[in-house]
Amino acid sequence: MARYQRDGSLDQSFGDGGLVTVVPSWARSMEAYAVTLDGHGRIVVVGIADAFGSGQSVAVARFTGDGRLDGTFGAGGFASPSLVPSPAWATDVYVDPMHGKITVVGIANGQFFVMRLTDDSAAAPFGINGAVLAPPGRPNEQSQADMITVDAYGRLVVAGVTSQ
Asked: What distances in angstroms separate CA 96 from CA 39, 70, 117, 125, one per listed residue?
């Protein structure tokens, strides 16, 4: 991550000279695909982690406002929810500012997924054990959730792609 001042210079009070680079201890690498802020000014980042021995999995990290990992979230600031099958990665994230629930969308084993985590990274009451997988519509069809928003009634609106 990088944080910039209004004039385009790196914010030296953020991370290490304006930059943050982290990899969870359980992975070789992590790529971030989406970032948002929660109601407390914490930074939530989602993407993909190349987990040792288990392939690609969804990765969720939360940071304090100054770019340090938030130790109150998951294991040392990271959650790798096993709510969806691998290979999987997250493409977007939404955090409910009132309740802190983190909703993540993406692709899991060729399927569109939506999953919800509580403020401390546990599975939230949603779908089956915190996740909804949308099976492909036709044989050999792949689907992926790419974006999420919430309407005025608190309903999740998710958009993505389906292809053969």
From this structure: 8, 18, 11, 14
Structure tokens belonging to residue 31? 């790529």
pTM given for the model: 0.90
What confidence tens digit (pLDDT) does each residue in 118-155 have?
988 888 899 888 999 886 566 667 889 999 999 999 89
CA-to-CA separations, 82 to 35, 61, 79, 118, 158, in angstroms, rounded: 20, 15, 9, 14, 21
Task: Identify the CA nearest to 116 among candidates 46, 65, 24.
Answer: 46
φ and ψ at residue 67, rounded to 5 degrees: 95, 10
Q: Which residues are CB-contacts of 145 (< 8 A; sequence separation ≥ 6)?
A: 91, 92, 105, 106, 107, 112, 113, 114, 134, 158, 159, 160
- CA dist 47 and 54 (Å) reads 16
| Residue whose tokens read 């928003």 | 149
